[in-house]
Batch of 2 targets.
Target 1
Amino acid sequence: MSIPGICLILRLPAIAEFYLIGENYERRNLFMLKILSKNRLVIIYGISFGSLVLLLKWLEYRFLIIDYAFEVYVGAIALLFTGLGVWLTLKLSSPKTETVFVEKQVYITKPETGFLPDEKALVELGISRRELEVLELMSAGLSNGEIAERLFLSLNTIKSHSSNLFEKLDVKRRTQAVEKGKRLGLLA
Amino acid sequence: MSIPGICLILRLPAIAEFYLIGENYERRNLFMLKILSKNRLVIIYGISFGSLVLLLKWLEYRFLIIDYAFEVYVGAIALLFTGLGVWLTLKLSSPKTETVFVEKQVYITKPETGFLPDEKALVELGISRRELEVLELMSAGLSNGEIAERLFLSLNTIKSHSSNLFEKLDVKRRTQAVEKGKRLGLLA
DNA sequence: TTGTAAATCACCCGAAAGTATGAGGGCTGA
DNA sequence: TCAGCCCTCATACTTTCGGGTGATTTACAA
């Protein structure tokens, strides 16, 4: 069992995943990069393992006479790898997370240049693209009819969108929707 | 060191996790499914490793015989005690708890930094104090009825004011009035 | 395959908004 | 004093808005 062999073994998971999953052969390089970044620990493991075996081999040929110190040798190995196991577990074990919600007061300040709607707020409220579009035109002061004309939709569609929008924003009127939209950073 | 033994070692992390975490014994099957789906990598690792060792063993007995027996033995010891270390750590280490603070954003209406409506624009457009007052409440999203209530006036009065306001601002709807009011510096 | 969500459109009804017109009282500057 | 403006309120009418319900198509995920 040579050292390259061990290293090969240690790399197996990554390789296996690569060949099993990687149907798109053009993306191998990208995939490899992902492997390198994601499986950093596995790679470190492999290198460490290899180095250790190398060290042991060296020690074996340098100082130890196998017949004499076999038990010591095995004991050392056992000790070393027990330690390795402990270290690895401590390093890798995912801590049980306790989530504490801390309320943070956020003052909304609208950036004047290059406005982009707050994606997070949009997702949280479940506001769709169309609805945001309608909201924007609302804030420009257009009536539902004008919005329908502008978007090449029927008046009823705009009404549906606005109704859904009001519910998601928890408001009753378009003026409130515009006001809240600005406050939440959905509108410029 | 038999092959089933090696396989057992390789399954150790999953098994250990199962028995250490699985306090709810009724959910073992569900837990196993989760293990299967989540720890796909680990399983692939285990199977690959096992297969490779099997292959090596076979080669060893077939062609190489004794020469590599020692390395395999040491490797097995290493693995065994790595597993032991992992198991020991999982068993003995006090459960790591990590407190995660999640910021929950609470939106606050920004403190008014002493806004003053543009007097010049007001005079130019001939907008009276009452009308401006109505416009401000409009921009807050209030309905005519609510504005009337707030100002202790009748609904009709508010309608009059808003109508006059719209004419002076040259707009057709309250949303446009709010938009234009902000644009002209009449509103914050 | 089934289910879910978005987007589209329709119809009805009541509420709110907006238009038009008029009227009475108060304040002010010419 | 009186014209002009503001504020108030009213009636009548039209338009727009918003709620409720439901159908259809598309797309995407389970």
Note: The two ends of chain A are 66 Å apart (CA to CA).
Target 2
Amino acid sequence: MASGSQRGLQFEPVQPVRAYQRIVEQIEEALARGDLAPGQRLPSERDLVSQFAVSRSTVREALRVLESNGVVRSRPGDPNGPEILPFSPGPLRKQMTRLARVDELTLSELIAFRMIMDGAAIQLASRLRTPEQLAEMEQTLVEMRAAIDVDFTAFSEADVAFHEAVARVSRNSLIQTCNEVVRGVVLGLISDKIAHAANSRALMLESLQHHAEVVEAIRAGDGHAAARIARQNLYDYYASYVPAPDRDPLRALIED
Amino acid sequence: MASGSQRGLQFEPVQPVRAYQRIVEQIEEALARGDLAPGQRLPSERDLVSQFAVSRSTVREALRVLESNGVVRSRPGDPNGPEILPFSPGPLRKQMTRLARVDELTLSELIAFRMIMDGAAIQLASRLRTPEQLAEMEQTLVEMRAAIDVDFTAFSEADVAFHEAVARVSRNSLIQTCNEVVRGVVLGLISDKIAHAANSRALMLESLQHHAEVVEAIRAGDGHAAARIARQNLYDYYASYVPAPDRDPLRALIED
DNA sequence: CCCATCAACTGGTCGGACCAGTGGACTAGG
DNA sequence: CCTAGTCCACTGGTCCGACCAGTTGATGGG
């Protein structure tokens, strides 16, 4: 093809590379190469000024970007200079929260995502769990039961603890983070509605029952059943807040 | 509980909140509230200086952070001021890549995530697809077959097109984006290894065969089978790059 | 030997300055 | 009337110098 032969000298749109960006790149490269490791310190801003041969404003803009990406942390007065941080999922979480908060995202989509993630985590957990971890999960069940007589928020916290325990067992930090983020966003959207629910005690009891069944299936090592029950539980718990026409995809995730 | 009664006056560790951070927060809040929407413009830096009552350096540091998070874009000379950007998966992918590069995220975890997401997308697609969308998927299969005789990268591109078509049908943009991001990260990690694989043609043929089976299951409306085949395909495709002890959780996602 | 003092740094913020661009208004030419 | 060219107010990018509050480690007195 004629156009194919020209691919070699195709031009790319050129956007100006700003000075602070090249500083960020240099530091990130040094980090990728291993010349810079977590725990080490960067030279002070004024030293960086002379090393990079730019003004302090430029150095500071680069540092602010690195800081917001979780790469370094600056503390005023620290004579050792900015610290290289170990990698943390914090910024990833921030980005995912942003993604989940974009208004084009339906409550239905969020809950579908939770059903998928939570189901997968439980499926993995029923295969990978140790006896101690199983005991840990059962302990969170006890706490949930106790929380029913206290408060809805207490129950909600215990519920979160259960799901976090499961996510830990899945040994997949991506699942863990996604679950955490989506749960937070969903709760932010409808926590007020749930709190005002009339028959909350009945809901809590039913939810507890479902969770117990999940743990039972995990104990038996039946990941498939455990995941199905978990998804069903999420559906029962949230479906009433989802507009009826949007419930179809959720049901598609339950039926096998 | 005694400690429980004190929870009300528990103190939290306080770290200095810098001026530029509060600017970032205010703008992000306005965006979350909907007072600011993609496509709109921010006032010029000098206007922001007077609105926030801080210096231009501070405003600029805030803008640099927002810019590195993909929230705004500044162009020199633009009289309309910085532009609010629509959400882009770019920064998300950057963070995930960063984590993957330091083994904070295992290749095994990434692939497990892909198996989960892709499986779920296909399960949803087999329920929600229209006849036109089914035809669209079959079209991508044709392109994959044609690409086998061209190039591995061409095949890879066609494969991406297939998965994107499926993700679209799932009508869940969260799944869509997550899939896209993780796929990009995985490819960045092992694309070079795959390219050097000896029997790449055999692999491509096998992969095509699997994809065809998936489409067949989608046509039949058997979401469960379709998802299982898809996960199996991903496992066969990537397992050899995963350290043997890490393959156990992946297999847990295939067995039902 | 311990502890209070102090001075040399640190990062955070400010204000002003200059530059190379952009884009809209304005004007001369059709 | 419309078009094409010029021009200028304003944009963001960068630099400079200054001040402040805070930390830290050395210093010196008990």
Note: Chain B touches chain A through 55 residues (CB under 8 Å).
